[in-house]
Protein 1
Amino acid sequence: MKTTPLHESVSKSYTEALARRAAGGSGCCGPASCAEPAPAGSTPAAASSFGCGNPLAFAEVRAGDVVLDLGSGAGHDLIVAARMTGPAGRVIGVDMTDAMIDAARANLALAGVTNAEVRKGMIENLPVADGTVDFVISNCVINLAPDKDAVFRELARVLKPGGRFSISDIVAEDLPEVLRSSAQAHAACIGGAISEADYLQGMRAAGLTDLQVADRFAYDADTLVALAESDFGGLELPPAELRALAAAAAGKVVSARFTGRRAEPAASEACCGGTCC
């Protein structure tokens, strides 16, 4: 799958945002990492995280699991997952941005993690074999993808039957068109967000089941202004107009955590004439 102009715009935005973060900037896709300092014992990649939530919260990653992180960024969640799955497990990160891949590999080395790797690729076309993953995580990335249905199909493809996922992302309802059409708003995780109903329907169509929205956090106007003025360059609007847009979108932009699993084959599909195929 070739990159689109939107992929290239997002990759450029995150490369520049990472550089600004390294120089002391701030910005993110969610209130926790925007408003709170990194917790004690956080990973060396935490300062470069642009996530909207914690996809590993209550996710029950098991020792020995193969874990896949869609859009692994600077590697914070890779490090946490590697510790949870232990030396018997393995963690794979996929990201399309060279600067993020370099940062993640450096952070993995700094943390002394040896059971994790980072692969270059797009989440619509994952460089991961069919049915090889026990658990998929992702932190505020799928909303950036132009073809979210392709992402959901890829998620189902790489999971083992019965394999699980915990995904934090941004969903939105009835956004003003200026936000939908803004590249900066897209990079800041707002412009490309779809509704919660469409998100769940895309997962169902891909063969994912036991779907739940485990957590929700609706953004108020102040948080939306902070996102618009984040590391992603801002919307270049007069302050009064930006505030009016934020007020119109308040409560319509939500950070949510989705959980579920890949459906297991029915007995008739798994076995032929009493003999398993």
Protein 2
Amino acid sequence: MGKRMGIGNIHCHHINGDCVPDNLTKQQTGKPEWFLRCFLANVVGRIFVGRHIEDFLRIMRSRDIGTVTQYHVEQKDDAGIDYSIVLSLDFSCIDPEYHGYNIDFEIQLEETAKACARHPFRFFPFFGFEARRPGVIDLLKNAHEKYGIVGIKMYPAFGYDPRPEKNDFIPPVESDVEDISQVLKNLYEFADEKNLPILTHCSPGGSYQCTIREEEKYKKIWGYTEPSNFLKIGFKYGLRICFAHMGGNVYKKGMRELAIQWFNQICNLISYAHEQGSKCRFYTDRANALAYIFKKRRKREDHFQQTANLFSESSYSPYILFGSDWPLGMHLFNENEYLKKYKSNLNQDAFSHYTQKNISQFLFGEELKIPDNYIEYLKRYNNGDLPELPDWIEEKDGFLKLVSD
């Protein structure tokens, strides 16, 4: 029998510069898109950002997603990571100039799925859910059947409240919006029916509606991102929900207080669901080291120590997940360096749960069964044949499952 489980990374993106609208690039970096494509960006970035910034810029300059995926394979192999979750992002409703995108979201979905299929069982694709996109439920169902997606990525900070009863959103430019309330109900019902986990952005950092000024974020945006928004949703539909970034680690005045508040909310939600013993489970990933770019070494070390402290509480330890936010988190550490830092701060049992058992249970559920739609997609991509299984997957009772004994 092979090894018990593979090491996983719950939070990755296979995107290049063509996936991201220019307005969003400028919003996040303060620099125009053309500057990031020129050689001078390498020099400035290495001085002020981090030693891996050149690798990050090379990825963003890649002309196709397949090249980005191959570069990630090389880093994963070096780190000993067996599989990663690839989170697609739909920017179609947040930029008033979205018609000028170089790559449409549907094309991004197809390219991501094909890139993942070239490396079977190494990558599992998630669907980037944008509630305001016309026909989004049909697109989700098609991606599930056609591209083998196994989970859903939500980003309420793009401009919508995830609670169906609120029906609250920022209208996108030049687009009619369906009944958001019904769209969200259909999403959660589909996730329940198909056993799809949901990972949602939960940090005051990251992207937001490009038409909103930064000083208005608290009033217009961050109420949508509140972790407690998902309490009723999780229990009503019996979902597995992961709060990405665990509130984040940001140090801007005001944002820091919000990040701490969300961190505490997430801990309470995890503990509450654990004690209730229901089908609903709340998880969180620690993909937030990006915020430490300009901070002292001590601040970075606090992040790893805080992660270790979470595993001392039994109601938290089964629900904390390793995620690197690759390639967005490459400014300080590559995949191998991330794992080494955590391994040096966690005991063997905690490291195993953090990088293996917790991730596989969030992704596949208690049965640890590889989804049929993913298997069927791999077969179609390989002319009807199933690719060779890695040693952390076994065939049992006609199903493919993670090795658990």
